Amino acid sequence: MPSDRATGIHDLSLATTEFVLPHAALAGHNGTEIGKYHVGIGQRSMSVPAADEDIVTMGAAAAAPIIARHGTDRIRTVVFATESSIDQAKSAGVYVHSLLGLPSATRVVELKQACYGGTAALQFAIGLVLRDPRQQVLVIASDISKYDLDSPGESTQGAAAVAMLVAADPALVRVEEPSGLFTADVMDFWRPNYRDAALVDGEESITAYLQAVENTWTDYAKQGGRPLDEFAAFCYHQPFTKMAYKAHRHLLNTCGQDTDGARIQQAVGHTTAYNKVIGNSYTASAYLGLAALLDQADDMTDRPIGFLSYGSGSVAEFFAGTAVPGYREHLRTAAHHEAIDRRGTLDYATYRELHEASFPTDGGHHPTPPQTTGPFRLAALRSHKRIYERR
Ligand code: CAA
User: Fold this and answer.
1) What residues are annotated to the active site?
2) Which of these, 152, 118, 54, lies nearest to 381 by C-alpha position?
3) How many CA atoms lie within 13 A of 45 on its CB side?
4) Which of 2, 93, 196, 292 could make an S-S bridge to 273, C-beta 3.0–4.6 Å?
5) Is residue 194 located within the same domain as residue 311?
6) Residue 357: inside a domain, yes or no?
7) Could you tell me the pTM of the whole model?
8) Under a CB-based contact definition with an 8 Å cutoff, are residues 59 and 96 in contact?
Protein backbone atom coordinates (compact mmCIF):
# COMPACT_ATOMS: atom_id res chain seq x y z
CA MET A 1 0.00 0.00 0.00
CA PRO A 2 1.41 3.45 -0.84
CA SER A 3 1.95 5.62 2.23
CA ASP A 4 -0.09 8.84 2.51
CA ARG A 5 2.75 10.49 4.42
CA ALA A 6 3.96 13.70 2.73
CA THR A 7 7.25 13.22 0.89
CA GLY A 8 9.09 15.64 -1.34
CA ILE A 9 11.75 18.34 -1.59
CA HIS A 10 13.13 19.28 1.81
CA ASP A 11 15.87 21.60 0.53
CA LEU A 12 17.00 22.86 -2.88
CA SER A 13 20.23 24.58 -3.89
CA LEU A 14 21.62 25.56 -7.28
CA ALA A 15 25.08 26.19 -8.70
CA THR A 16 26.27 27.34 -12.07
CA THR A 17 29.55 28.15 -13.78
CA GLU A 18 32.41 30.63 -13.42
CA PHE A 19 31.65 32.36 -16.72
CA VAL A 20 28.76 33.76 -18.73
CA LEU A 21 28.44 34.68 -22.41
CA PRO A 22 25.80 37.32 -23.19
CA HIS A 23 23.74 36.57 -26.30
CA ALA A 24 24.69 40.04 -27.52
CA ALA A 25 28.29 38.74 -27.90
CA LEU A 26 27.10 35.67 -29.86
CA ALA A 27 24.93 37.90 -32.08
CA GLY A 28 27.93 40.20 -32.61
CA HIS A 29 29.85 37.20 -33.96
CA ASN A 30 27.20 35.59 -36.17
CA GLY A 31 25.13 38.62 -37.23
CA THR A 32 21.84 37.30 -35.81
CA GLU A 33 19.31 40.00 -34.91
CA ILE A 34 19.39 40.19 -31.12
CA GLY A 35 15.58 40.10 -31.04
CA LYS A 36 15.71 36.47 -32.16
CA TYR A 37 17.64 35.58 -29.01
CA HIS A 38 16.02 37.95 -26.49
CA VAL A 39 12.44 37.58 -27.74
CA GLY A 40 12.36 34.67 -30.23
CA ILE A 41 13.91 32.06 -27.91
CA GLY A 42 13.76 34.14 -24.71
CA GLN A 43 17.44 33.92 -23.74
CA ARG A 44 19.74 36.74 -22.50
CA SER A 45 22.95 34.85 -21.67
CA MET A 46 24.42 31.38 -21.21
CA SER A 47 26.56 29.92 -18.42
CA VAL A 48 29.93 28.66 -19.69
CA PRO A 49 32.14 26.33 -17.61
CA ALA A 50 35.75 27.24 -16.90
CA ALA A 51 38.45 24.78 -18.02
CA ASP A 52 38.51 23.33 -14.49
CA GLU A 53 34.73 22.94 -14.04
CA ASP A 54 32.44 20.08 -15.01
CA ILE A 55 29.26 18.32 -13.88
CA VAL A 56 31.02 17.06 -10.74
CA THR A 57 32.29 20.45 -9.55
CA MET A 58 28.87 22.03 -10.22
CA GLY A 59 27.02 19.15 -8.57
CA ALA A 60 29.24 19.28 -5.48
CA ALA A 61 28.90 23.08 -5.29
CA ALA A 62 25.10 22.77 -5.42
CA ALA A 63 24.99 20.03 -2.77
CA ALA A 64 27.56 21.43 -0.29
CA PRO A 65 25.17 24.01 1.30
CA ILE A 66 22.57 21.26 1.78
CA ILE A 67 25.10 19.11 3.63
CA ALA A 68 26.18 22.13 5.69
CA ARG A 69 22.56 22.73 6.76
CA HIS A 70 21.32 19.17 7.31
CA GLY A 71 24.41 17.05 7.92
CA THR A 72 24.91 13.59 6.45
CA ASP A 73 23.40 11.32 9.12
CA ARG A 74 20.17 10.47 7.30
CA ILE A 75 21.48 10.42 3.71
CA ARG A 76 21.88 6.81 2.57
CA THR A 77 21.46 7.35 -1.18
CA VAL A 78 22.85 9.80 -3.74
CA VAL A 79 21.28 9.81 -7.20
CA PHE A 80 23.19 11.83 -9.79
CA ALA A 81 21.22 12.64 -12.95
CA THR A 82 23.04 13.84 -16.04
CA GLU A 83 23.22 13.55 -19.80
CA SER A 84 26.71 15.08 -20.01
CA SER A 85 28.37 12.19 -18.24
CA ILE A 86 32.15 12.16 -17.78
CA ASP A 87 32.62 8.39 -17.57
CA GLN A 88 30.91 5.38 -19.09
CA ALA A 89 31.27 3.28 -15.95
CA LYS A 90 31.83 5.31 -12.78
CA SER A 91 29.02 7.48 -11.46
CA ALA A 92 29.79 11.20 -11.24
CA GLY A 93 28.02 10.92 -7.89
CA VAL A 94 30.91 8.92 -6.42
CA TYR A 95 33.27 11.87 -6.95
CA VAL A 96 30.70 14.17 -5.30
CA HIS A 97 30.28 11.68 -2.43
CA SER A 98 34.03 11.90 -1.85
CA LEU A 99 34.30 15.69 -2.24
CA LEU A 100 31.49 16.19 0.29
CA GLY A 101 32.76 13.59 2.78
CA LEU A 102 29.55 11.55 2.78
CA PRO A 103 29.50 8.34 4.87
CA SER A 104 30.74 5.13 3.23
CA ALA A 105 27.38 3.50 4.10
CA THR A 106 25.76 5.18 1.09
CA ARG A 107 24.50 3.89 -2.26
CA VAL A 108 25.46 6.13 -5.20
CA VAL A 109 24.23 5.81 -8.76
CA GLU A 110 24.04 7.84 -11.99
CA LEU A 111 20.83 8.03 -14.04
CA LYS A 112 20.32 8.94 -17.69
CA GLN A 113 17.38 9.68 -19.94
CA ALA A 114 18.24 13.05 -21.48
CA CYS A 115 16.68 15.99 -19.61
CA TYR A 116 14.14 13.71 -17.89
CA GLY A 117 16.84 12.13 -15.65
CA GLY A 118 16.41 14.69 -12.83
CA THR A 119 12.74 13.84 -12.51
CA ALA A 120 13.44 10.11 -12.63
CA ALA A 121 15.92 10.67 -9.78
CA LEU A 122 13.36 12.65 -7.78
CA GLN A 123 10.66 10.01 -8.23
CA PHE A 124 13.00 7.13 -7.38
CA ALA A 125 14.13 9.05 -4.30
CA ILE A 126 10.53 9.49 -3.20
CA GLY A 127 10.02 5.74 -3.53
CA LEU A 128 13.01 5.08 -1.25
CA VAL A 129 11.82 7.58 1.34
CA LEU A 130 8.31 6.13 1.33
CA ARG A 131 9.87 2.72 2.05
CA ASP A 132 11.84 4.10 4.99
CA PRO A 133 10.86 7.66 6.03
CA ARG A 134 13.89 7.94 8.34
CA GLN A 135 16.16 8.04 5.30
CA GLN A 136 16.89 11.02 3.08
CA VAL A 137 18.07 10.94 -0.54
CA LEU A 138 20.39 13.49 -2.10
CA VAL A 139 19.36 14.09 -5.70
CA ILE A 140 21.79 15.99 -7.92
CA ALA A 141 20.91 17.05 -11.47
CA SER A 142 23.95 18.52 -13.22
CA ASP A 143 24.53 19.21 -16.90
CA ILE A 144 26.52 21.14 -19.45
CA SER A 145 24.58 21.76 -22.63
CA LYS A 146 26.96 21.89 -25.59
CA TYR A 147 26.16 22.11 -29.31
CA ASP A 148 28.49 22.59 -32.27
CA LEU A 149 29.80 26.12 -32.78
CA ASP A 150 27.72 28.08 -35.30
CA SER A 151 24.88 25.53 -35.21
CA PRO A 152 21.24 26.56 -34.46
CA GLY A 153 21.43 24.90 -31.03
CA GLU A 154 24.45 26.99 -29.93
CA SER A 155 22.28 29.85 -28.66
CA THR A 156 20.45 27.46 -26.30
CA GLN A 157 23.60 26.21 -24.50
CA GLY A 158 24.00 26.61 -20.75
CA ALA A 159 25.14 24.80 -17.60
CA ALA A 160 23.95 24.38 -14.03
CA ALA A 161 23.33 21.93 -11.23
CA VAL A 162 20.44 21.62 -8.80
CA ALA A 163 20.76 19.57 -5.62
CA MET A 164 17.61 18.49 -3.78
CA LEU A 165 17.29 16.73 -0.47
CA VAL A 166 14.29 14.39 -0.66
CA ALA A 167 12.69 13.57 2.67
CA ALA A 168 9.51 12.77 4.56
CA ASP A 169 7.64 15.85 5.89
CA PRO A 170 9.52 18.13 3.47
CA ALA A 171 10.13 21.79 4.29
CA LEU A 172 9.64 23.06 0.72
CA VAL A 173 7.42 21.05 -1.64
CA ARG A 174 5.22 17.96 -1.20
CA VAL A 175 5.30 15.83 -4.35
CA GLU A 176 1.94 14.26 -5.14
CA GLU A 177 0.61 11.16 -6.80
CA PRO A 178 -0.37 10.52 -9.55
CA SER A 179 2.00 11.17 -12.42
CA GLY A 180 1.13 11.30 -16.11
CA LEU A 181 3.70 9.36 -18.15
CA PHE A 182 4.70 9.20 -21.83
CA THR A 183 7.47 7.44 -23.77
CA ALA A 184 8.00 7.52 -27.56
CA ASP A 185 10.99 6.34 -29.60
CA VAL A 186 11.95 9.54 -31.45
CA MET A 187 15.31 10.88 -32.72
CA ASP A 188 14.88 14.55 -31.85
CA PHE A 189 18.08 15.04 -29.82
CA TRP A 190 20.87 12.61 -29.02
CA ARG A 191 24.63 12.41 -28.37
CA PRO A 192 26.54 9.36 -29.61
CA ASN A 193 29.34 8.22 -27.28
CA TYR A 194 32.02 9.54 -29.64
CA ARG A 195 30.72 13.12 -29.62
CA ASP A 196 31.10 15.97 -27.09
CA ALA A 197 28.34 18.04 -28.61
CA ALA A 198 24.73 16.93 -28.95
CA LEU A 199 22.98 16.41 -32.29
CA VAL A 200 19.48 17.76 -32.69
CA ASP A 201 16.62 18.04 -35.14
CA GLY A 202 15.29 21.37 -33.83
CA GLU A 203 11.86 21.31 -35.40
CA GLU A 204 11.29 17.65 -34.56
CA SER A 205 12.38 18.30 -30.97
CA ILE A 206 9.78 21.02 -30.46
CA THR A 207 7.03 18.87 -32.00
CA ALA A 208 8.05 15.88 -29.87
CA TYR A 209 8.08 18.04 -26.71
CA LEU A 210 4.57 19.37 -27.42
CA GLN A 211 3.27 15.85 -28.08
CA ALA A 212 4.73 14.83 -24.73
CA VAL A 213 2.89 17.72 -23.01
CA GLU A 214 -0.38 16.57 -24.50
CA ASN A 215 0.13 12.88 -23.77
CA THR A 216 1.42 13.25 -20.21
CA TRP A 217 -1.53 15.51 -19.40
CA THR A 218 -3.98 13.00 -20.89
CA ASP A 219 -2.46 10.22 -18.79
CA TYR A 220 -2.36 12.48 -15.68
CA ALA A 221 -6.09 13.18 -16.06
CA LYS A 222 -6.79 9.47 -16.62
CA GLN A 223 -4.92 8.61 -13.42
CA GLY A 224 -7.20 10.98 -11.45
CA GLY A 225 -4.96 14.08 -11.28
CA ARG A 226 -6.04 17.60 -10.37
CA PRO A 227 -8.10 19.66 -12.81
CA LEU A 228 -6.10 22.30 -14.73
CA ASP A 229 -7.63 25.31 -13.00
CA GLU A 230 -6.33 24.20 -9.57
CA PHE A 231 -2.72 24.91 -10.60
CA ALA A 232 -1.16 28.24 -9.62
CA ALA A 233 1.99 27.83 -11.76
CA PHE A 234 3.76 25.38 -14.08
CA CYS A 235 7.46 24.44 -14.06
CA TYR A 236 8.27 23.20 -17.55
CA HIS A 237 11.57 21.82 -18.79
CA GLN A 238 13.13 24.89 -20.43
CA PRO A 239 15.60 24.18 -23.26
CA PHE A 240 15.04 27.91 -23.88
CA THR A 241 12.48 29.93 -21.95
CA LYS A 242 10.14 30.55 -24.90
CA MET A 243 9.52 26.79 -24.88
CA ALA A 244 7.69 27.08 -21.53
CA TYR A 245 5.29 29.55 -23.16
CA LYS A 246 4.80 27.30 -26.20
CA ALA A 247 4.23 24.29 -23.94
CA HIS A 248 1.67 26.03 -21.75
CA ARG A 249 -0.22 27.37 -24.74
CA HIS A 250 -0.33 23.81 -26.08
CA LEU A 251 -1.60 22.48 -22.74
CA LEU A 252 -4.37 25.10 -22.63
CA ASN A 253 -5.35 24.22 -26.20
CA THR A 254 -5.33 20.51 -25.33
CA CYS A 255 -7.74 21.28 -22.49
CA GLY A 256 -9.94 23.45 -24.73
CA GLN A 257 -9.15 26.56 -22.70
CA ASP A 258 -8.49 30.18 -23.63
CA THR A 259 -4.82 30.85 -24.54
CA ASP A 260 -4.75 34.41 -23.29
CA GLY A 261 -1.16 35.79 -23.16
CA ALA A 262 -1.54 37.27 -19.66
CA ARG A 263 -2.80 33.93 -18.34
CA ILE A 264 0.24 32.13 -19.80
CA GLN A 265 2.59 34.77 -18.38
CA GLN A 266 0.98 34.34 -14.96
CA ALA A 267 1.45 30.54 -15.12
CA VAL A 268 5.09 30.39 -16.27
CA GLY A 269 6.60 33.91 -16.06
CA HIS A 270 8.36 33.57 -12.67
CA THR A 271 9.78 30.14 -13.56
CA THR A 272 11.88 31.54 -16.42
CA ALA A 273 14.01 34.04 -14.47
CA TYR A 274 17.04 31.79 -13.88
CA ASN A 275 16.87 29.75 -17.10
CA LYS A 276 16.78 32.97 -19.14
CA VAL A 277 20.28 33.94 -17.97
CA ILE A 278 21.76 30.43 -17.45
CA GLY A 279 20.56 28.64 -20.60
CA ASN A 280 19.70 24.98 -20.95
CA SER A 281 20.82 22.92 -17.98
CA TYR A 282 19.08 19.75 -19.22
CA THR A 283 18.27 17.62 -16.12
CA ALA A 284 18.37 20.66 -13.81
CA SER A 285 16.23 22.94 -15.96
CA ALA A 286 12.73 22.29 -14.58
CA TYR A 287 14.09 22.56 -11.02
CA LEU A 288 15.84 25.87 -11.77
CA GLY A 289 12.30 26.83 -12.80
CA LEU A 290 11.01 25.73 -9.39
CA ALA A 291 13.78 27.65 -7.61
CA ALA A 292 13.00 30.81 -9.58
CA LEU A 293 9.28 30.44 -8.86
CA LEU A 294 9.66 29.92 -5.11
CA ASP A 295 12.33 32.64 -4.85
CA GLN A 296 10.21 35.26 -6.60
CA ALA A 297 6.48 34.57 -6.47
CA ASP A 298 4.18 35.88 -3.75
CA ASP A 299 3.20 33.31 -1.15
CA MET A 300 2.65 29.92 -2.86
CA THR A 301 1.69 28.06 0.33
CA ASP A 302 -0.67 25.16 -0.42
CA ARG A 303 -0.97 26.25 -4.04
CA PRO A 304 -0.42 23.36 -6.50
CA ILE A 305 2.44 23.64 -8.98
CA GLY A 306 2.47 21.56 -12.19
CA PHE A 307 5.77 20.00 -13.31
CA LEU A 308 6.42 18.91 -16.88
CA SER A 309 9.68 17.10 -17.38
CA TYR A 310 10.68 16.27 -20.96
CA GLY A 311 13.73 14.25 -21.98
CA SER A 312 14.41 13.87 -25.69
CA GLY A 313 14.37 10.46 -27.17
CA SER A 314 11.82 10.62 -25.42
CA VAL A 315 10.37 10.22 -21.92
CA ALA A 316 8.14 12.74 -20.16
CA GLU A 317 6.24 13.06 -16.90
CA PHE A 318 3.65 15.48 -15.56
CA PHE A 319 3.07 15.65 -11.81
CA ALA A 320 1.96 18.08 -9.13
CA GLY A 321 3.71 19.49 -6.09
CA THR A 322 2.49 21.82 -3.35
CA ALA A 323 4.54 24.37 -1.43
CA VAL A 324 4.22 23.64 2.29
CA PRO A 325 3.46 26.19 5.04
CA GLY A 326 6.65 27.97 6.14
CA TYR A 327 8.58 27.09 2.96
CA ARG A 328 9.83 30.65 2.54
CA GLU A 329 12.03 30.40 5.64
CA HIS A 330 14.03 27.61 3.94
CA LEU A 331 14.70 29.22 0.56
CA ARG A 332 18.20 30.10 -0.63
CA THR A 333 17.22 33.13 -2.70
CA ALA A 334 20.28 35.27 -1.89
CA ALA A 335 22.70 32.40 -2.60
CA HIS A 336 20.97 31.67 -5.92
CA HIS A 337 21.29 35.30 -7.00
CA GLU A 338 24.94 35.30 -5.90
CA ALA A 339 25.67 32.14 -7.96
CA ILE A 340 24.29 33.87 -11.06
CA ASP A 341 25.66 37.36 -10.43
CA ARG A 342 29.22 36.26 -9.60
CA ARG A 343 29.87 34.88 -13.09
CA GLY A 344 32.56 36.66 -15.08
CA THR A 345 31.53 37.89 -18.53
CA LEU A 346 33.40 36.32 -21.46
CA ASP A 347 34.16 37.87 -24.80
CA TYR A 348 33.32 35.78 -27.86
CA ALA A 349 36.94 34.73 -28.61
CA THR A 350 37.53 33.37 -25.08
CA TYR A 351 34.19 31.53 -25.15
CA ARG A 352 35.20 29.91 -28.44
CA GLU A 353 38.55 28.81 -27.00
CA LEU A 354 36.82 27.20 -24.00
CA HIS A 355 34.27 25.53 -26.29
CA GLU A 356 36.98 24.02 -28.49
CA ALA A 357 39.24 22.82 -25.63
CA SER A 358 39.38 19.12 -24.85
CA PHE A 359 41.69 16.84 -22.89
CA PRO A 360 44.30 14.83 -24.79
CA THR A 361 43.47 11.12 -24.70
CA ASP A 362 47.07 9.85 -24.31
CA GLY A 363 46.87 9.01 -20.58
CA GLY A 364 49.49 11.64 -19.70
CA HIS A 365 49.38 14.16 -16.85
CA HIS A 366 47.34 17.14 -17.99
CA PRO A 367 46.79 19.82 -15.35
CA THR A 368 43.95 22.27 -15.98
CA PRO A 369 44.48 26.04 -15.78
CA PRO A 370 43.15 27.30 -12.43
CA GLN A 371 40.21 29.43 -13.57
CA THR A 372 37.28 28.71 -11.28
CA THR A 373 36.87 30.56 -7.99
CA GLY A 374 34.19 28.07 -6.90
CA PRO A 375 34.57 25.61 -4.00
CA PHE A 376 35.61 22.60 -6.14
CA ARG A 377 37.80 22.21 -9.21
CA LEU A 378 38.90 19.61 -11.70
CA ALA A 379 42.66 19.89 -11.19
CA ALA A 380 43.94 17.46 -13.84
CA LEU A 381 43.51 14.40 -15.94
CA ARG A 382 46.24 11.92 -14.99
CA SER A 383 46.57 8.33 -16.26
CA HIS A 384 43.02 8.74 -17.67
CA LYS A 385 41.77 9.61 -14.14
CA ARG A 386 39.98 12.83 -13.24
CA ILE A 387 41.60 14.52 -10.23
CA TYR A 388 39.34 16.83 -8.23
CA GLU A 389 40.26 19.31 -5.51
CA ARG A 390 38.36 21.08 -2.79
CA ARG A 391 39.53 24.69 -2.49
N1 CAA B 1 12.82 39.06 -33.30
C2 CAA B 1 11.95 38.31 -32.58
N3 CAA B 1 11.76 36.96 -32.82
C4 CAA B 1 12.48 36.41 -33.82
C5 CAA B 1 13.37 37.16 -34.61
C6 CAA B 1 13.54 38.56 -34.31
N7 CAA B 1 14.39 39.31 -34.98
N8 CAA B 1 13.93 36.33 -35.52
C9 CAA B 1 13.39 35.11 -35.32
N10 CAA B 1 12.52 35.14 -34.29
C11 CAA B 1 11.74 34.05 -33.69
C12 CAA B 1 11.14 33.09 -34.70
O13 CAA B 1 9.94 33.58 -35.25
C14 CAA B 1 10.95 31.85 -33.84
O15 CAA B 1 9.80 32.04 -33.03
P16 CAA B 1 8.66 30.90 -32.94
O17 CAA B 1 9.36 29.66 -32.43
O18 CAA B 1 7.69 31.44 -31.98
O19 CAA B 1 8.16 30.71 -34.33
C20 CAA B 1 12.14 31.90 -32.89
O21 CAA B 1 12.65 33.24 -32.95
C22 CAA B 1 13.27 30.94 -33.25
O23 CAA B 1 13.55 31.12 -34.61
P24 CAA B 1 13.91 29.89 -35.56
O25 CAA B 1 12.94 28.78 -35.34
O26 CAA B 1 14.11 30.43 -36.92
O27 CAA B 1 15.32 29.51 -34.91
P28 CAA B 1 16.35 28.39 -35.26
O29 CAA B 1 16.15 27.80 -36.60
O30 CAA B 1 17.67 28.98 -34.97
O31 CAA B 1 16.04 27.20 -34.22
C32 CAA B 1 15.81 26.07 -32.17
C33 CAA B 1 15.58 27.39 -32.91
C34 CAA B 1 15.12 24.93 -32.91
C35 CAA B 1 15.22 26.18 -30.77
C36 CAA B 1 17.34 25.81 -32.09
O37 CAA B 1 17.92 26.77 -31.24
C38 CAA B 1 17.69 24.43 -31.58
O39 CAA B 1 17.83 23.49 -32.35
N40 CAA B 1 17.88 24.27 -30.22
C41 CAA B 1 18.23 23.02 -29.61
C42 CAA B 1 17.06 22.06 -29.52
C43 CAA B 1 16.03 22.46 -28.51
O44 CAA B 1 16.26 23.22 -27.60
N45 CAA B 1 14.80 21.89 -28.66
C46 CAA B 1 13.73 22.14 -27.72
C47 CAA B 1 12.85 20.94 -27.51
S48 CAA B 1 13.84 19.49 -27.11
C49 CAA B 1 14.12 19.56 -25.45
O50 CAA B 1 13.47 20.28 -24.75
C51 CAA B 1 15.22 18.73 -24.87
C52 CAA B 1 16.47 19.58 -24.72
O53 CAA B 1 16.67 20.14 -23.66
C54 CAA B 1 17.35 19.72 -25.87
Assistant:
1) 83, 115, 237
2) 54
3) 22
4) 292
5) yes
6) yes
7) 0.98
8) yes
pLDDT tens digits for 366-388? 999 999 999 999 999 999 999 99
Q: Which of 106, 61, 13, 123 is nearest to 375 (CA)?
A: 61
The CA distance from 25 to 239, in Å, is 20
For the segment 20-39, the average pLDDT, to the nearest whole number, is: 98
Are 207 and 167 in the same domain? no
Strands 19-22 and 344-345: parallel
DSSP class per residue in 282-299: GGGHHHHHHHHHHHHSS-
**Res 2: pLDDT:** 46
CA dihedral 367, 61, 47, 50 (to 10 degrees): -10
Q: Are residue 125 and residue 16 in the same domain, yes or no?
A: yes
Is the CB–ligand 1 distance for residue 117 below 6 Å? no
Q: Which domain holds residue 84?
A: 7-174+331-390
Same domain, 251 and 274: yes
Q: Is 46 in the pocket of ligand 1 (CB under 6 A)?
A: no
Atom number in ligand 1 closest to CA 209: 47
End-to-end Cα distance, the chain: 47
Cβ of residue 189 lying under 6 Å from some atom of ligand 1: yes
